[in-house]
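Pasting two entries for a bug report.
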Amino acid sequence: MAISTAPGSEPALTARSRKPLGGRPVLFAAMLLVATLGVLGLLVVGPTVPLAAALAAAAGLVALVVLAWVVAGPRL
């Protein structure tokens, strides 16, 4: 016996779904913009920053990009 569901009742499409099917494009773009400006700033002031601080900043920016993808990126 097959169970039929009404159209639009799939978990990914319901209003109670935790994450929208298309992601959160505004938040995603904002987080990537912050990461981009951080990388640009690091490139500009990089020669004057100690190596350990530059590596920590770069790792933080990479983590921000990963966080942007996980939290607000498109759902594939």
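Entry 2 (this is the one that rendered wrong in the viewer):
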Amino acid sequence: MSDALYGLIGALGGAALGAAGAYWGPLRQQREVALQAAAERMYAERHEKIERLIAVRSSLRAWNALLNRTFLEMQIPGRSVDLDQFRQDELNAMNEGWRALDAVMHDHVVVSAAIQRHLLANETFRPSMLTEALEQFGLRLSQVGQDGLPMSAEALEELEALSQRAANWRRDLSAVIESRLEEYFLGSHSPGSAST
């Protein structure tokens, strides 16, 4: 009888373990699949943020390069600048820069380090300081081009100051973007890796 009892207990225990395994096994697998999906989502979101930061940096660099290239062309004796083409190119570059900045605002990117130096110099802070500097530089280039070349010494000095102001803001913003990119890259492991 004791053998039968032990057999019954063993069968019931085996059935209980089998039932528990049948219940907890799929739950554990579902949990692992959900964790893997969350890790992949986080990795994809991080990658999208990186792409948006790179777009800001490259679009503002292209806008600034267009303005500086036009400024240099205006200084070449006997060289004329097609103002209509310049205005169209600048409008395209400006729109691309604003689109990239708008996309990054979604990520709540803080640029406080970029403005700290300017705040210490008692400059008024506005998030759009770089784009305003680029817009002022472009507008003044257009006005000087319309006035005719060669440009006056005062116009040259003013344009050099506007170019330098835009370059300073772009350099500071680029430093912040590079810092943020480093944070993302240091934290960007492939989905499913042990440290994700």
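Dev reply: Rendering is fixed now. As a check, the viewer should reflect this: Helices lie at 2-75, 83-105, 112-120, 129-147, 153-186.
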